[in-house]
Amino acid sequence: MTTVEQPPIGFGRMHRKEDARFVRGRGTYVDDVVLPGMLYGAVLRSPFAHARIVSIDTAAAQAHPRVKAVITGQTLEGLKLAWMPTLSQDTQAVLATDKVRFQGQEVAFVVAEDRYAARDALELIDVEYEPLPAVVDARRALDPDAPVIRDDKEGQADNHIFDWGAGDEAATDAVFASAEVVVAQDVLYPRVHPAPLETCGAVADFDAVTGKLTIWCNTQAPHAHRTVYALVAGLPEHKIRVISPDVGGGFGNKVPIYPGYVCAIVGSIVTGKPVKWMEDRSENLMSTGFARDYHMRGEVAATRDGRIRALRVKVVADHGAFNGTAQPTKFPAGFFHVFTGSYDVEAAYCGVTGVYTNKAPGGVAYACSFRITEAAYLIERMIDVLAYDLDMDPAQLRMKNLLKPEQFPYPSPTGWEYDSGDYPRALSLALEMAGYEELRAEQAARRASGSDGPLMGIGISFFTEAVGAGPRKHMDILGLGMADGAELRVHPTGKAVLRISVQSQGQGHETTYAQIVAEELGIPPDDVDVVHGDTDQTPFGLGTYGSRSTPVSGAATAVVARKVRERARQVASAMLEVDPGDLEWEKGRWYVRGDQGQGRTIQEIALAAHSSLELPDGVEGHLDATTVYNPPNLTFPFGAYICVVDVDPGTGQVKVRRFVAVDDCGVRINPMIVEGQVHGGLADGIGMALMELIAFDEDGNCLGASFMDYLLPTSMECPSWELGETVTPSPHHPIGAKGVGESATVGSPAAVVNAVMDALKPYGVRHADMPLTPAHVWRAIQGRPLRTDLAIT
Amino acid sequence: MQVPAHFEYERATSVDHALALLAKWGSEARVVAGGHSLIPMMKLRLARPEALVDINDLEELAYVRLDGDALAVGAMTRHADLLASPLVGEHYPIFHEAERVIADPVVRNRGTVGGSLCQADPSEDLSAAFAAVGAAAVIRGPDGTRQVPVREFHTGPYETVVAPGELLVEVVVPVRPGGWRDPVQGAQRRDRFEAATGGISERSERGWQGPGGGSAYEKVERRVGDWAVAAAGAAVWLDGDTIGDAGIGLTAVGAAHFHAPEAERFLRGSPATDAVLAEAGRIAAEHCEPVADQRGPADYKKHLAGELTTRALARAVKRARGEA
Ligand SMILES: Cc1cc2nc3c(=O)[nH]c(=O)nc-3n(C[C@H](O)[C@H](O)[C@H](O)COP(=O)(O)OP(=O)(O)OC[C@H]3O[C@@H](n4cnc5c(N)ncnc54)[C@H](O)[C@@H]3O)c2cc1C
Q: Residue A5, exposed/middle/buried by CB under 10 A (0-12, 13-18, 19+)?
């Protein structure tokens, strides 16, 4: 047995408080919620990617003895709920009325006494479809003869959604015109899926007597969901309670409102009973928020000796059948325009065109910090393409172009202000940890030996993240500003309860937020209960995604704890009968300046604050505070990653030999949790680089609709991670912390792909798209790489 | 949650009882062994048997033993037990190598040898391994027992010669000189051999194979636990430097009956050189008709059929020589 650890009073390594229930199987997930009289819902889905609905006959399903209700788009039309707004101000069909627009789209909803009957009844619904040609290839969605998918939208005569650009196009073109070297490369970031182990689901319970609707739902944004339900369904907001219980992974997949949730709510209203809807694995992979699907063309202008001068990027963004991406309103391409990455360039421009296709809607999910994964991948791939063309060492090329510490705060050419960073230090540390020189020597020796053994490749990636959305004046979702509240109450005995607006899908909020309070108030983290994920019990805020919890809500927590500390000073001054200005703070205690022995602990103060002690005028009793934190800027974590692979040229198999990851996320609240986040993200990166993919055949059939088809990496594909850290605090965050949840997902795919491309360099391979499956690597060696977003034929 | 359609459930207590239950329910009944192929198909409602006859209690079919000159593997032997069997490793390392890359431990703990063969998935690994070593399937039905070579067992994708009402009960693998039959005899021969040669011999994890016979399995998968993109198994018996006999099994590459008779014929009597093994791979590939899917395009799979055949043969030859 290990010894019982003493949790730190504040920041530091400690076991996660929530794990006690998780490792015992005592968590409460949505599917664990069982209410008296509860019914079960199931969704009938379209087998076609694009088809007109001729008729829907539900009579046989209605007649099933255990079926309580069958809901179709027609039912919903009567309630004005057949369509709902998406997070990108588009509309999405809740249940299809006119056409189906992607395979797996929701067509009808059955409510029955049990899961089996609900599923059986789906087969009794007779839908007549008239199939239409499907738009599958994003690059051809705007062809004049492409079938129009969104003919439901007035004035929509093609599949175009938006054009959006950032940077100075003319200045960029001018640099390109005078550049010594220009390299260009088409780069695809294929469609992948967040694939949380717990699929999406909800239990809706409408109480006709009180008029209160309670929804247990594994959402990442309970408050935003509540407001949207109020706006869409016309229910009064105070009569809606959204509870996000324990959640088995989100990765952005659980930000949107899905038709199944709305159907469960309608089902409960119609039947007067609680209704549970839990999607299965295939439904999750086929119909819920996917990620990426960015078809990019990158161009770099540089000098002959490898100084990067300008970047130009054109993107076709596949948003599926409904534009359902979750991102701040002003940024239809998310934060893609951070694509200049970590480098000092004169000018940059990106132009993004969003298109509809006959694929599942969604868009930014999957740990991508609003498209920064795509941006970081693009720039890091382009740097290696430039290194290839110039025959330069990719580490040297990066070192030469990285921003210098003295350039911070750095105004980027596309409008960001990077808060802090020391990039060369992080890259140097990674190179040193990897033993870069020795690795290159080993590679050279192997190449020189002419053996037909595995090909060795070394890949580097340096990323800059932009997380913590965000400043209210720039960032909102559906008009809701991205500020977050926090409430802290210290009980008379000195124990505390913290209520936060964000919730956890596994990030460990119950531990880290208690540690922030502990750090600020000097009470043990075990004495702080963290309440989250229940709109009736927590202050408003936009939720956990985009690595925003620590930058926004973590800041709110520090601020609210400081407010409590200030109140405690007032109470202590009354207790000690000294002027508040004469009190000094040490962790957990106010004492009289110059007389350290004269003081009161926070616990003593808490009791006094609730007692009959006379307080100065204007000082309220009790010990509590609330705050709303509006971040002044995003935080900009960064890191340097190095991956070493061995590739079998006879089979195309890639083995990741080593992975070195140096992360700088500012001050680390709980280093163990940070490392856990990095481990998970690195595994994600290997998955995306080597195996994860949702492709579609020419009819629009989804080819990644089960875990036999959509491959997630296992421990067997992952090396033993070698982690390093540098600490460059955020200057504007109250505790100097930056988000880290997505850093490794953002940074790692490029390192893996760069390593494989480096291994294939002797074959003249400059680029091949993800995922680098054995087949694809072998085809790249043959000079015939695959188009990975389409079915292999 | 995926849930199957309605079905009846019966639990057999003996082979005879299982046959009686199958007779009772007729052609709409299905046997369930480990359930790792059948249950997912039922949940997806691709399979809708009216009744399941559960044979998991049939301990009498769970064994790996030597029966005279043959290795006998009961149909209810779990993948994990085949993998753990020293007897199997001693005679045919091909099975350990194949089992190590079949699915994952969870599936291997429950999935069975019989279920694998009867599922007849075109990417199934054991079919290729059994085809390589020239095994035979023992099938029991109402009219008694019959034996069918594994190379004639599969009649098409997901189809076998096992008729409704019948049960696969055993797979027998002939044990030939070269792979020693029992540990004591093997050890004695090893000692003699080492004394005579100054000690070249293979010590596999548990057993030992001297010059004469060797076998190996090679598989490419996209990820651990995935079905094969392509796989090849080889068994070789040497006569000095000449290949006396060879067996090649292939899966997932559209090889008829999971094997490569043309390449085998080419090998018999040829010297065991790299060039010959490469040519055998080429011939094997030539007779494959793989189909493209998300695991890879047809040209790649065809390439792998050759590459993996050659690699498996090379390792089998090394084993036969006592070098690997
Ligand atoms: C995630 C996963 C990964 C896998 N990966 C691989 C892989 O890489 N390679 C590979 O080869 N396999 C793989 N498999 C398949 C696995 O090996 C088979 O599912 C399993 O071994 C089949 O055996 P079972 O006992 O589970 O059969 P069941 O599912 O119980 O039965 C399969 C079929 O055989 C019939 N049947 C079973 N036993 C008998 C019998 N004695 N007589 C007559 N009919 C019988 C059943 O009626 C049914 O039709 C994988 C499976 C899973 C779930």
A: exposed
Please report residues of A whose CB lies closer than 8 A to that of B306. none
- pLDDT at position B197 is 38
Nearest-10 Cα torsion for A261, A262, A263, A268: 90
pLDDT of res. B210: 46
pLDDT at B181: 34
Q: Which residues of chain A have pLDDT under 50?
A: 1-2
Alpha-carbon distance of A137 to A149, in angstroms, equals: 13
**CATH number of the structural domain spanning residue B239:** 3.30.390.50
* Whether B105 and B121 share a structural domain: yes
Nearest to A651 among B6, B44, B220 (CB): B220
Task: Please give the residue range of the domain that contains residue A126.
Answer: 33-132+197-249+254-287
Tell me the sheet residues that pair with A592.
Answer: A583, A595
Residues A304 and A404 in one domain: yes
Instruction: Record the pTM.
Output: 0.96
Q: Is the pLDDT of residue B228 over 50?
A: yes
Contact flag B3-A119 (C-beta cutoff 8 Å): yes
Amino acid present at A303: T
- Given CB atoms, is B293 within the 8 Å cutoff of chain A? yes
- CA angle, residues A386, A389, A394, in degrees to nearest 5: 50
Distance A683 CA to ligand 1 centre (A): 29
Whole-number pLDDT of residue A570? 97
What pLDDT is attached to residue B324?
Answer: 75
Q: What is the ipTM, given to two decimal places?
A: 0.95
Whether B127 is in the pocket of ligand 1, judged by its Cβ within 6 Å, is: no
Residue B2 sits at the chain A interface (C-beta within 8 Å) = yes
The parent domain of residue B241 ranges over 212-320
Preferred mutation among B3, B7, B277 to probe A, highest tally of A CBs within 10 A? B3
Residue A6 placed within a domain: no
Predicted local confidence at residue A6, as pLDDT: 83
For position A365, what pLDDT does the model report? 66
| Overall number of domains in chain A | 3
- Shared-domain flag, residues B158 and B230: no
Q: What is the mean pLDDT of residues B120-148?
A: 97
Residue B99 near ligand 1, beta carbon < 6 Å? no
For the stretch A467-517, pLDDT in tens is 999 999 999 988 999 999 999 999 999 999 999 999 999 999 999 999 999
Q: Do B222 and A691 touch (CB under 8 A)?
A: yes
Mutate to test the pocket of ligand 1, among B10, B21, B27, B31 (most ligand atoms within 8 A of CB): B31
| CATH code for position A769 | 3.30.365.10
Distance (angstroms) between ligand 1 centre and the Cα of B118 equals 7
Percent of chain A with pLDDT over 70: 99
Q: Could you identify the atom of ligand 1 that is nearest to the CA of residue B47?
A: 49
In a domain, A387, yes or no: yes
Rounded percentage of chain A residues whose pLDDT exceeds 90: 96
CATH code: domain of residue B90: 3.30.465.10
Instruction: Give the amino acid at B50.
Output: E
Please give the mean pLDDT across all residues of chain B: 90
Let me know if A223 is exposed, middle or buried by CB neighbors in 10 A (0-12, 13-18, 19+): buried
- pLDDT at residue B182 above 60? no
Instruction: Indicate whether B254 and B276 sit together in one domain.
Output: yes
Cα A772 to Cα A382: distance, rounded to the nearest angstrom: 17
pLDDT tens digits for range A577-616? 999 999 999 999 999 999 999 999 999 999 999 999 999 9
Q: Is B218 in the pocket of ligand 1 (CB under 6 A)?
A: no
What tokens does A791 get?
A: 């079915």
Is B136 a member of any domain?
A: yes
Contact A713 B2 (CB under 8 A): no
Cα distance between residue A744 and residue A574, in whole Å: 50
Residue of B nearest to A791 (CA): B294
User: Which is nearest to A219 in space by CA: A237, A238, A196?
Assistant: A196
Half-sphere exposure of residue B242: CA atoms within 13 angstroms, side-chain side = 6
A779/A777 Cα distance (integer angstroms): 5
Residue A765 falls inside a structural domain:
yes
